[in-house]
Amino acid sequence: MRAAGELADSPNHPAIKIARAHKANFEKWLRENLATEGHRDCNVLARGLMVLIDGAVTQMLLHRAASYAQAAARAAQALLRP
Predict the structure, then answer these.
(1) Whole-angstrom distance, CA of residue 55 vs CA of residue 53
(2) What is the structure's pLDDT at 42?
(3) Local confidence pLDDT in tens for the 82 residues of the chain
(4) 3 near 20, Cβ under 8 Å?
(5) Dihedral in degrees, nearest 10, Cα atoms 61, 33, 76, 73
(6) Do 15 and 7 contact (CB within 8 A), yes or no?
(7) Residue 32 · residue 59 · CB < 8 Å
(8) Is 38 left (phi over 0), alpha (psi -120 to 50) or beta?
(9) Around Cβ 82, how many Cβ atoms within 10 Å?
(10) pTM of the entire structure?
(11) Contact 47, 27 (CB under 8 A)
(12) What 8-state DSSP symbol labels residue 13?
Protein backbone atom coordinates (compact mmCIF):
# COMPACT_ATOMS: atom_id res chain seq x y z
CA MET A 1 0.00 0.00 0.00
CA ARG A 2 2.80 2.35 0.84
CA ALA A 3 4.53 1.70 -2.48
CA ALA A 4 1.29 2.34 -4.35
CA GLY A 5 0.83 5.67 -2.60
CA GLU A 6 4.38 6.85 -2.90
CA LEU A 7 4.81 5.72 -6.50
CA ALA A 8 1.31 6.46 -7.81
CA ASP A 9 2.77 8.37 -10.77
CA SER A 10 5.08 5.48 -11.68
CA PRO A 11 2.85 2.48 -12.48
CA ASN A 12 5.74 0.60 -14.10
CA HIS A 13 8.14 1.02 -11.18
CA PRO A 14 9.59 -2.33 -10.04
CA ALA A 15 8.26 -1.83 -6.50
CA ILE A 16 4.74 -1.34 -7.85
CA LYS A 17 5.03 -4.48 -9.94
CA ILE A 18 6.17 -6.47 -6.90
CA ALA A 19 3.40 -5.06 -4.70
CA ARG A 20 0.78 -5.74 -7.39
CA ALA A 21 1.96 -9.34 -7.77
CA HIS A 22 1.96 -9.87 -4.00
CA LYS A 23 -1.59 -8.53 -3.64
CA ALA A 24 -2.80 -10.60 -6.62
CA ASN A 25 -1.28 -13.76 -5.14
CA PHE A 26 -2.84 -13.08 -1.75
CA GLU A 27 -6.25 -12.45 -3.32
CA LYS A 28 -5.91 -15.69 -5.27
CA TRP A 29 -5.05 -17.52 -2.05
CA LEU A 30 -8.13 -16.06 -0.36
CA ARG A 31 -10.33 -17.01 -3.33
CA GLU A 32 -9.04 -20.59 -3.35
CA ASN A 33 -9.56 -20.99 0.40
CA LEU A 34 -13.05 -19.53 0.20
CA ALA A 35 -13.89 -22.01 -2.56
CA THR A 36 -12.46 -24.88 -0.51
CA GLU A 37 -14.71 -23.84 2.37
CA GLY A 38 -17.72 -23.93 0.06
CA HIS A 39 -18.47 -20.21 -0.19
CA ARG A 40 -20.26 -18.79 -3.22
CA ASP A 41 -19.10 -15.76 -5.17
CA CYS A 42 -15.50 -16.36 -4.13
CA ASN A 43 -14.16 -13.69 -6.50
CA VAL A 44 -16.37 -11.02 -4.95
CA LEU A 45 -15.74 -12.25 -1.40
CA ALA A 46 -11.96 -12.35 -1.88
CA ARG A 47 -11.96 -8.84 -3.32
CA GLY A 48 -14.14 -7.58 -0.46
CA LEU A 49 -11.83 -9.14 2.10
CA MET A 50 -8.85 -7.51 0.39
CA VAL A 51 -10.53 -4.12 0.72
CA LEU A 52 -11.31 -4.78 4.39
CA ILE A 53 -7.77 -5.90 5.17
CA ASP A 54 -6.06 -3.03 3.38
CA GLY A 55 -8.50 -0.50 4.78
CA ALA A 56 -8.05 -1.78 8.32
CA VAL A 57 -4.26 -1.72 8.03
CA THR A 58 -4.32 1.83 6.66
CA GLN A 59 -6.62 3.07 9.40
CA MET A 60 -4.61 1.32 12.13
CA LEU A 61 -1.42 2.95 10.86
CA LEU A 62 -3.04 6.39 10.72
CA HIS A 63 -4.86 6.24 14.05
CA ARG A 64 -2.80 3.68 15.98
CA ALA A 65 -6.04 2.00 17.03
CA ALA A 66 -6.70 -1.74 16.97
CA SER A 67 -10.43 -1.04 16.88
CA TYR A 68 -10.16 -0.80 13.08
CA ALA A 69 -9.02 -4.43 12.92
CA GLN A 70 -11.89 -5.42 15.20
CA ALA A 71 -14.38 -3.58 12.98
CA ALA A 72 -12.93 -5.23 9.87
CA ALA A 73 -13.22 -8.64 11.54
CA ARG A 74 -16.92 -8.03 12.25
CA ALA A 75 -17.47 -6.89 8.66
CA ALA A 76 -15.65 -9.99 7.37
CA GLN A 77 -17.82 -12.23 9.52
CA ALA A 78 -20.92 -10.58 8.04
CA LEU A 79 -19.61 -11.11 4.51
CA LEU A 80 -18.87 -14.77 5.18
CA ARG A 81 -22.22 -15.60 6.78
CA PRO A 82 -24.24 -18.09 4.73
Answers:
(1) 5
(2) 97
(3) 777 778 888 888 998 899 999 999 999 999 999 999 999 999 999 999 999 999 999 999 999 999 999 999 999 999 999 8
(4) no
(5) -50
(6) yes
(7) no
(8) left
(9) 5
(10) 0.87
(11) yes
(12) -
